Amino acid sequence: MPRRLLVVLALLAPLALAACDASGPDPVGITGTWEGVIKDMNDPSVEYPVTFRLTDTGTRVTGSGEYALPAERVEFTVVDGSFFQSTATLDLRFALPPFTGTVVATLTETDPGRLQGTFSGRGGGNGVLDIELVARRVS
């Protein structure tokens, strides 16, 4: 091999290795602790604090959380969730009947993170969801 070619390859090798380095920033996902509010669709002045602890493993999302009503705190589990092309769809199972609900939200900000969308749940409750990422780790 000509010496000049060897020199060029030696100079390009570190660049090629750097391009293969997997230690760069994580891809955008929704793993973490999210806090915010659910606003009642019938009366937007009524807000319920909500917390989600989500784990995003590719396109599948699992987790848990709770929201506060005036007289009680209601816990839930994400029984089936997905995150694809900035849209999160979370099927929820509540600790109290009626047991099911759904969140459909769009990741509108990635630094640090904000999900906005709709919430449907217990007792025909429907609302607008607005939550922000408060920690990248699930606590």
Please give the share of residues in helix.
Answer: 10-25%
Structural class: mainly beta
Major sheet: size, sense and barrel closure?
8 strands, antiparallel, barrel
| Spans where pLDDT lies below 50 across 5 or more residues | 5-26
**Which radius of gyration do the C-alpha atoms yield?**
21 Å
Distance between the termini: 57 Å
Instruction: List the helices and strands in order.
Output: HEEEEEEEE
- What percent of residues are in strands? over 45%
Number of strands: 8
Spatial strand sequence of the major β-sheet: 1-2-3-4-5-6-7-8
**Separate helix tally:** 1
Mean pLDDT: 77
The coarse overall form would be globular
Structure notes:
It is built from one helix and eight strands. The termini are far apart. Strand 5 (87-94) and strand 6 (100-109) form a beta hairpin. The chain has an eight-stranded antiparallel β-barrel with strand order 1-2-3-4-5-6-7-8. The protein is mainly beta and 139 residues long.
SSE layout and pairings?
Blueprint: H1 3-19, E1 32-40, E2 47-57, E3 60-68, E4 73-84, E5 87-94, E6 100-109, E7 114-121, E8 125-135
Antiparallel strand pairs: 1-2, 1-8, 2-3, 3-4, 4-5, 5-6, 6-7, 7-8
